[in-house]
Amino acid sequence: PCPPCPAFSSSAHLLHKTRTKCGFRALQPPESMTDDYQDEHELELEMALDGTSVRPSQWQSDRFQLVTVLQMAPTNHGYVELLQDLQRSQLVAAKVMPISWTCESHTAFVIRYPGENEMPWRDICVTNFLAERLGPGYV
Q1: Angle (nearest 5°) at CA 21 between 19 and 24
Q2: pTM
Q3: Contact 100, 78 (CB under 8 A)
Q4: Are 84 and 91 in contact (CB under 8 A)?
Q5: Distance from the first to the final alpha carbon of the chain
Q6: Are strands 90-96 and 64-73 parallel, antiparallel or unpaired?
Q7: Residue 107 to residue 98: CA distance in whole angstroms
Q8: Cα(32)–Cα(78) distance, rounded to whole angstroms?
């Protein structure tokens, strides 16, 4: 198994484990993938891990219906909800955190919480990165 990676958040660590084959099935690039293509996507991943590549979108409140609160997240004053995605007819989980905790950007968060291990913007960016590549229904 993969040892803990303190530099990565939990989402990024999962991606790290996937990329490094330590305990998870490795994602293999298509044989037709060129080195330039792979280098470009690795750079995008590094930007995602940096936590600065996300552009938040407006929450679609009419698309999701609350089923229940799964867990409280006291460290970041948030909680995890189980929601029904009315557009895709499937259950999804969402972590809800106040802007007072996440701040308005990764840079602002790091300045306000310099010693914090949790990096919400990095988690958002990695989730966005994976969703763009894997498509709907995977992330």
Answers
A1: 95
A2: 0.61
A3: no
A4: yes
A5: 23
A6: unpaired
A7: 16
A8: 43
pLDDT at 40: 64
Put the strands of the sheet holding 90-96 in their side by side order: 64-73, 78-85, 90-96
With bands split at pLDDT 50, 70 and 90, how would you rate the model's confidence at 107?
confident
For the record, the structure tokens of 15 come out as 């991606």
Q: What is the Cα–Cα distance from 3 to 5, expressed in whole angstroms? A: 6
Report d(CA 7, CA 132) in Å as an integer. 23
Amino acid (one-letter) located at 97: M
Question: Which of 12 and 105 is assigned the larger pLDDT?
Answer: 105
* Radius of gyration (C-alpha) of the chain in whole angstroms: 16
Q: At what angle do helices 120-134 and 10-20 cross, to 10 degrees?
A: 50
Short-list 98, 102, 70, 73, CA closest to 83: 70
Q: Take residue 135 and report the two structure tokens written for it.
A: 């498509």
Report how far residue 103's alpha carbon sits from residue 14's, in angstroms, rounded to the nearest whole number: 24
The candidate with the shortest Cα–Cα distance to 109, out of 120, 98, 94, is: 120
